[in-house]
Design brief:
single chain; 202 residues; alpha/beta; two-stranded antiparallel sheet; 6 helices; 41% helix; NADPH-dependent FMN reductase; FMN reductase (NADPH) activity; oxidoreductase; FMN; NAD(P)H-dep_FMN_reductase
Length: 202
Amino acid sequence: MPHVVTVLGSASSHSRSANLLERVELPLAQRSIESVRVEIRKLAPDALLGGDVAHPQIAEAIAAIESADGVVVATPLYKASYSGLLKVFLDLLPRDALRCKPVLPLATGGSLAHLLAVDYALNPVLASLGAEHIIGGVFATEADMRQLAGTFELSPSVATRLSEAVDGLAQIIEDKQDLRALRCRPPSVHVSKEPSTNACAA
C-alpha cells in the first residue's frame, strides 16, 4: 500500500494546522493511501535542536520521509515565515530526502498578509530537498477556520482548494504505482525496454 508522511510543524496537536492534516489523511485513506504522521513537537528536543540524526526518534522520522510516496507539510506562519519547529526538522533531512516525491504544503496564518510566505519561504526549502512536484499549497486564515464545538469549520473556498490539492497528490501517487506495477509485470507481458528519461519514474 502506498503511504504518505504528514508532517506537523505546529506546537499543538489541536491547532488549525493539525486540523488541515486530518482533512488530508481521511480522503487519502479512502483512496487506499496510508498516512504516517510525524509531529515534530513530540520528537526528542535535545536531539532535534542538537542535530542528532542518529537519535532513534529522529532517525525514524527521517527514514519515514525517505521511504514515503508523498509528503504533506502543515505549519502555522509566524512573522511571515513557517514555524521554527519545522525549520529545525527540515534542516536535519538529507539533501535529496524529498527526491521524486510530490509534496503538498499547507499553512495557517492570522490574515492574508502571510499568504506569500508559502511561495517565498517554504517552497524553496522543499525544492532544495529535491521535491519532484510541489503541489499548489493551501493557505487558511483564522477567518477560514472558525473554531466550533472543539473543532474547526472550514470555509467553502478553502475546503474546495484542499480537496483539489489532495486529489492532485493522490493522482500523482496512484500514477506512480501504476507505472511501477507495469514495470514489474512478468516477462510474458510485453513492456517497452526503452530507458526512461525521467529519473523519478523508476
